[in-house]
Amino acid sequence: MMDRIKIFDTTLRDGEQAPGASMSAELKLDIAMQLAKLGVDNIEAGFPVSSPAQMKAVRLIAQNIKTTGVSALARAIDEDIDVAAEALKGAEHPLIHVFLATSPIHMQYKLKKDEDEVYSMAVQAVRHARNLSAQVEFSPEDATRSNPAFLMRVLEGVIDAGATIINIPDTVGYTTPSEFYSLIKRIMTEVSGIDRTTVSVHCHNDMGLAIANTISGLQAGARQAEVTVNGIGERAGNAALEELAMILNLRKDTFSFSTGINTRQIFTTSRMVANAINYPIPKNKAIVGENIFAHESGIHQDGVIKNRETYEIMSPETIGREHNDIVLGRHSGISGFKKRVKQLGFSLTKEEFKKIYPVFLNIADQKSEIFDEDIIAMVNDELGKKTDTMRMDFFNILSGNSGISTSTVRIESNNMVMQEAATGDGPISAIFNAIDRATGMHAVLEEFHIQAVSPGRQAIGEASVIISINGRKFSGKGASTNIMEASAKAYLNALNKSKIIGENNEEN
Ligand code: KIV
Ligand code: ZN
Prior knowledge:
This protein is α/β, with parallel strands linked by helices. It is built from 17 helices and 16 strands. A hairpin with an 8-residue loop joins strand 14 (444-452) and strand 15 (461-469). The site of zinc ion has 5 residues, from loops.
């Protein structure tokens, strides 16, 4: 008899806390829809009190996702809880997730409260949340570095106050599988009232143990796992959804757990999230990396030709990674192009397809074969511009191997045209300086990468940047067969994002 494990997805909340991973509310809704299709049990949509942008995203998701639970995060403060309840109005299955740190280091330095004060705050907050929502989850932040006796006391208090889910976070990725197993077992056996709740685990990956710890927690009796797509999240991230889902799927013999995940949606979801936040997936990433079904050595190739299972423990189809027998090129029709774009994790409207198809044909005219990477770069470039209010009309760069480079740009924003010139040590700094002048904005360039996305001299160049403005990071991407244009587009895309997300924050 298999035990059903609930998958609580926190890609849009904890995942979005990864540096530079901020997403617009509309993009979050697209991802939430895909998460619902993937079959997660709960979507943590955001932390509504933290900004109007977060509030908007939670609201949008609560109003549009009807088949899956939707949750919102709140500190153990009445105002946070009220705002979370407000954001969740309209949700079919709302859940308020209240958290409060219980470890000595967090209580002393961050909260500046003693154990009794933290206990009362937690209990009061859960009682308040329970008056507003039938489903309340409580997380003792930094549980794995908390005094176990105090942790148990708090858990008993919040269960009495009405918590329906008890989530045990390994906030800093400090625990080990055997230690976490013992902690969850102890909670399951010693906390009175625990049988009236669902026990959940939430593991971070600082030591690369997030998945191992999550599984240990499940083996000890937890029946909910909190995960993110591609393992994105604070620092080293969270336990990766696709890894957990596939481990439980492939090793039913060992674990005897089932989930509601449709594994055939994994690949599309993974690519969609990676594209949305401009976080490339490492080629050797478990389950969804590009190389997972690639075989280099002769012995391995020989084995796979004779029987794939000699070196593959799952088929590409299991995770929805279909074999592409259609080569895309200048003679490809729109339906072949549409099919591949969908497989690569994009959900485009009819209008967007109409806009992108001529771009595809234009590039296909220059290249004999279009690779998946070309399509990803092309679509990202178009989608990146979707919400951009500032667009580049043209640019010029004058640069050589000695002296100063000069650049001119013309940017259009809300029917206003801004044209400026600037110099720089090199062509990139010249064009970024010119964009700063034209837009009146200034950002610190934290990271800048440029690469050809596919083989050949006519390859598309894709630039990605991370900028920071007032300490907040924003990522941007741009693609073009001209690498200067790709760089300028990436920088402008990041500035646009900072405007959309930053302006929303200022309303707070
Ligand atoms: O890692 C953590 O402790 C969290 C909590 C808010 C659950 O993300
Ligand atoms: Zn977390």
